[in-house]
Amino acid sequence: MGTVHARSLDPLPMHGPELGVQTDDIEAPEIEQEPKQEVLENKDVVVQRVHIDGLGRTKEDLLTYEISEVFRAKNLIDVMRKSHEARQKLLRLGIFRKVEVVIDTSRGEDALPNGLDVTFEVTELRRMTGSYNTMVGNNEGSMVLGLKLPNVFGRAEKMTFQFSYGTKETSYGLSFFKPQPGHFERNISLNVYKVTGQFPWSSLRETDRGVSAEMSFPVWKTNQTLKWEGVWRELGCLARTASFAVREESGHSLKSSLSHAMVIDTRNSSILPRKGGLLKIHQELAGYTGGDASFLKEDFEIQLNKTLLWDSVLSASLWGGLLLPIGDKPTSIADRFYLGGPTSIRGFSMYSMGPQSEGMAGDYLGGEGYWAGGLHLYTPLPFRPGRGGFGDLFRTHFFLNAGNLCNLNYGEGPRAHLKKLAECIRWSYGLGIVLRLGNIARLELNYCIPMGVQSGDRICDGVQFGAGIRFL
To answer: Is 338 exposed, middle or buried (0-12, 13-18, 19+ CB in 10 A)?
Structure first.
């Protein structure tokens, strides 16, 4: 909760012996009975003034929205609670390094007998901060250097430059973030970036140079995001042995798309949840705002978690998506779905199932429709070593995964699509150990038994290691 200082409305007198005088030499005076100390929890109070000390470049009108609820408090407990909530809101702005709260009785000629003054003592962040850290993606790692300018114009704006160098991807970008005063969840962001990625399963190298504008806002219990993105994409072959299908798609293209995402997340943790659920729906429409890529892309993610006996957790997940080309031009290899690997269908190699090029190269080309489901049982380690400490970061993991990825003939209708997605299902089962790295990522070491393997699929029969932030 931070530090909240509350001074008593009626301070008690202090008694004690004077220095150098023995208590036995003092005649005990007749002690008058003090009036009964008044209980403050239920006493009506009035917050007369709220002060914010330590402001430099921050505009006061921005903070008025964050602290306004403090004036509505009716008793001392309510004042402390609303002051704490206001403190959390101030810290959430990302412009203060420290926020302390002091509650005191009102002073001055206009002070009321039950009046209170609340003071927020803040320490602003520096005008420029730097950072160096490592990040874990879906089975890849990267080193990240960042430069941040918080509170650029005094109203919680933020400008960030970030450079990332990873095992499969290198990127850098400049972003500007602006929240709506009083409603931090409503914000806009502008981004300029360049990303170069290598995809060995497809013998493909992709370089994206793009700009985007994004607006986020809550609606009821959901978080909504609207986004426009313009990307100049350059596709090339990663190896000389790349198939003709990959070489045919090499070159430059321009994608301009509008997308919408809706998220409902009630989980207690996004990495290794014990309870709650997740619903995520994403739509992307390309081609109507320019560019030479035209498609409609829909995908969703559902997850449910339930705590069982003996501190075990049952988790169920379902993913799915469709990619519909618009016009006569086929979809691009860069827009299709990919499946397989330690973060999705375990027991298969990374993104190494589904449609494949002909010939010796056997490059994976992605699919226009997919689904994947998983059932997991997480339990504590046997005999609970390190219970209450480091051992609680580990969980035993039993899993069953299944899914399919294919291209669809959209002239056949929805029933034919479902029938094709239900054919030749890949599935796997196994067990392993999960390590939670805070709320950043998680590591898995599993023993996998792949089943339903189709011709051309690459499998990982036996021990498989995975690292990432999003797991099926």
So the answer is: buried
